[in-house]
Amino acid sequence: MIKNRLDKLRLKLKEKGLDAVLLTKRENYIYISGFTGTFAYVFVTQNDAILLTDFRYVSQAEKQADLFEVVEYKGKILDSIKEVLQSKDIEKLGFEDDYITYNKYEEMKKNLLVKELIPLGSIIDNLRIIKDEDEIETIKKAVKIADDAFFHILNYIKPGVREFEIAAEIEYFMKKSGAKGPSFETIVASGYRSALPHGTASFKKIEKNEGVTLDFGCIYKDYCSDMTRTVFVGQPKEELLDIYNVVLNAQKSALEKAAKGLSGREIDLVARDIISKNGYGENFGHGLGHGVGLEVHEKPRLSTKSDDVMENNMVVTIEPGIYVNGVGGVRIEDIIVINDNNPIVLTASSKEIIVL
Ligand SMILES: [Mn+2]
């Protein structure tokens, strides 16, 4: 698995004319090396794979990154890296331009003494975009934990309970089920607050006859899940139920159309057309979805601006929503795996109207 990823990275290095890459973004070095600790500099050339870390992580790195030579650095990390670069005659070094701070870049330029520091752009993101079997299995577990948490929380949502209590219960449940934690700040947006697309849980109490949007996910073995459901407590306004049916129709249609070869824009348009035709075009102000993996939001993007083309084994969300001030909002989100013309839906929670 790691061998395969290293081979692909080395091919990219060749294409780009790079002698080596230096990775420090955690998701990227997990992907390339297998090491999951929070601190490492991962260095890869055509012939070498070296992981520099400190005392805390040496034995973990040796175990997890078994295709890498693990070097424990003492003193300044950039001095250790400079030594490695000089011993390997590196002239063109790729770095993570979308992650390294300006300060770090200046420091690297001054201290590493390589001829050229070359931005990697999306090279690593593009390697991570198609998931292998192990990754899909891990994501399935993360999705299952979130599905179970949704089922669990339905008994907990009632008038008088505060949004943050619901968020805490969801997160506690997920952690007890083996998750490392939530994959982002849990969204619980009830009543008028459900018109906020990203209303993280507040002190507001759930009231009778309103909707509650729950958007949450967990991290399981470093892979993320992400799901959204809107449920109702008592009898919601007629318009909110109409909105629910429009969102559900848009969500199902886009999900069914999601296929290999289509762009993120084309799939987004399927949902957007349905929502617009029902008069809510202005109320769907975000993209349809995004890739999910080591990061909860990663490539590919599904939006009006996305040229990303779907390929098999990309894992993406489909999450249209409608938000109307004074009425409320509805969003429905599933995770799917692109699979020719038959996407595999990982999220198992019901999408039918749930009235509590
Ligand atoms: Mn999402």
Characterization of this structure:
The protein is of the alpha+beta class. The protein folds into 2 domains: 2-128, 3-Layer(aba) Sandwich (Creatine Amidinohydrolase, Chain A, domain 1); 133-345, Creatine Amidinohydrolase. The protein has helices at 2-16, 26-33, 58-64, 77-87, 102-111, 123-128, 133-153, 163-176, 238-257, 264-277; strands at 20-23, 41-45, 49-53, 69-72, 92-95, 116-119, 181-182, 187-190, 210-216, 218-220, 223-224, 227-233, 289-291, 298-302, 315-318, 321-324, 328-331, 334-337, 344-345. The longest helix has 21 residues, at 133-153. The protein is elongated and about 70 Å long. The mean pLDDT is 96. The structure holds manganese (II) ion (MN). Manganese (II) ion binds next to loops. The site of manganese (II) ion has 4 residues, from loops.
* Relative helix content: 25-40%
- Gap between N and C termini: 45 Å
Give the overall pLDDT as a whole number.
96
Which H/E pattern describes the elements?
HEHEEHEHEHEHHHEEEEEEHHEEEEEEE
Bound compounds: manganese (II) ion
**Strand ordering within the main sheet:** 4-3-2-1-5-6
CATH topology of the largest domain: Creatine Amidinohydrolase
Write down how many β-strands occur, each being a DSSP E stretch of 2 or more residues: 19
**Structural class designation:** alpha+beta
Count of the domains:
2
- What is the class of the largest domain in the CATH system? Alpha Beta
Using the alpha-carbon principal axes, give the shape. Answer: elongated
Q: Please describe the biggest sheet, giving its number of strands, its sense, and whether it closes into a barrel.
A: 6 strands, mixed
Number of helices: 10
Model regions low in confidence, pLDDT < 50 over at least 5 residues: none
In angstroms, what is the radius of gyration?
Answer: 23 Å
CATH level-four homologous superfamily name of the largest domain: Creatinase/methionine aminopeptidase superfamily
CATH architecture of the largest domain: Alpha-Beta Complex
Q: Kindly estimate the percentage of residues that lie in beta strands according to DSSP.
A: 15-25%
